[in-house]
Amino acid sequence: MNFSDFTLRDLVRGIKDGTFTAKEVQEYFIQKTEERNPDLNAFLTIHTETEEIAPELPLAWVPIAVKDVFCEKGKRTSASSKMLEHFVPPYDATVVTHLKDAGMFSLGKTNMDEFAMGGSGENSAFGPARNPLDPSRIPGGSSSGSAVAVAAWLAPAALGTDTGGSIRQPASMCGIVGFKPTYGRNSRSGVIAMASSLDCPGTLTKDVRDAEFLYEIMSGYDPLDSTSLSEDPKIDPSIWERSDLKGVKVGVPKEYFIEGIDPGVKKSIEDAIEKLRSLGAEIRNISLPHTEYGLAVYYVIVPAEVSANMARYDGIRFGFSTFDPYDRNKSRTQSLGSEVKRRIMIGSFVLSSGFYDAYYKKATLVRELIRDDFAKAFEEVDVIVTPTSPSVAWKIGEKIDDPMKMYLSDIFTIPASLAWLPGLVIPVGKTSPEDDPSAQLPVGMQILGPRLWEEQCFLVGHVLEQALKLQ
């Protein structure tokens, strides 16, 4: 049986009602992954030993791909870095534990930008993942392999992490659904850290309901994570019965429709906004005045936290080592990529004596202004919709030597991360890239909700998703 067209929930239902078995599903996706992975480089490790224990569990042992930043007991977890190339964790990340307790079969560990630092998938120490819609193009990052796995039908769903757009941006580039909950909803325990005040586990799926299905399993308070939230994350199931958006106020921020955005991307988003209007939503123009500072704030705060988190990789306690007692830095020099080194150096600089107040402290204050912008906006609207990226997927190698161009690809996702908001991305159209007028590549719309209000993102995303399918 061809399981590629099935959603995660379809597969669970089929196993539970006896239409097929979990082993059949696992073998199908393992075989397909082994066949296509040499061309796409989505997986760094494929788990080929099938399992079938208790099909009555919520996930019924359906395979899910796992970004290589989530620790899994006994499974190599490298963060796509030579530093951790042979690291095998002795424990599971908390969200992995939740999923395995619910009956997840881990299909394998997916490729990513090294230590989640990047927006294209090209910074992996083991080669770039490739967009299945056009393998000459990037799939987005840092959750690149997870997005490729779902978009190429190698897995019905995948885990990712989102610090400044690392789930939402590749979801947009690959034409799938990406979901980042409120910061603190999903535990960070056992997730290899990049920037601890922003890292957020989430999912890449084929539709909105699959994203919500996994969210209810993954979320919840964790005493092992000091930033974990205790509020009840349950979603009202009645939202799936809605076919209109009457009474929903949708904000459209003028700062997100800037000069330099690809005209085809802009049109796809504007068409989707009109579709929301036709579904009964009230569209309101709003302003988020400190948006222009988001990128600068992010690239002060994140490198600062990177420099602190990366200090543990010294080649002594664990990780790659040259075993040179006279030069401990040699282990880091030889095993870390250029983007990781760049962020460590920037972070060390902004935290250094004489520069801390001028850069890091000022950035944290401006971060509060960005949060206040969103808080004021959500007094007037229920959700905010924006483009996810200024462009569609570009050619591999096109921006790799220009960090600023690369960083600008996250300009629309970073502010919501700084404000700890939930964000959902769904595909809303296709457009031609500037370098190939004959191609058609996906465009994703970002739907942002108030902090702790994931339900509103799911409602708007699901109703719009269903309406677009009927077109």
Description:
Helices cover 35% and strands 13% of the residues. With 471 residues, it is an alpha/beta fold. β7, α7 (263-278) and β8 (282-286) form a beta-alpha-beta unit. The chain is globular. The two termini are 29 Å apart.
Short structural description:
The protein contains 14 helices and eleven strands. By secondary structure, it is of the alpha/beta class.
Features:
alpha/beta, globular, 471 residues
Structural class designation: alpha/beta
Largest sheet: 11 strands, mixed
The gross shape turns out to be: globular
Question: Helix coverage percent of residues?
Answer: 25-40%
Proportion of strand residues: 5-15%
Q: Terminal Cα separation, in Å?
A: 29 Å
Counting copies of identical and different chains, the oligomeric state is single chain
Would you identify the regions where 5 or more consecutive residues have pLDDT less than 50? none
> Can you list the strand order of the major beta sheet?
1-3-2-4-6-5-10-11-9-7-8
What is the helix/strand order? HHEEHEHEHEEHEHEHHHHEHHEEH
Radius of gyration: 21 Å
Strand element count: 11
Number of helices, counting only DSSP H or I runs of 4 residues or more: 14
Residue-averaged pLDDT: 95
What is the topological layout?
Layout lengths: L7 H9 L5 H19 L2 E4 L16 E5 L26 H8 L3 E6 L33 H8 L5 E5 L6 H7 L2 E4 L20 E5 L2 H11 L30 E5 L9 H16 L3 E5 L7 H16 L19 H7 L2 H13 L5 H22 L5 E5 L15 H6 L5 H5 L4 E9 L9 E8 L5 H16 L2
Parallel strand pairs: 2-3, 2-4, 7-8, 7-9
Antiparallel strand pairs: 1-3, 4-6, 5-6, 5-10, 9-11, 10-11
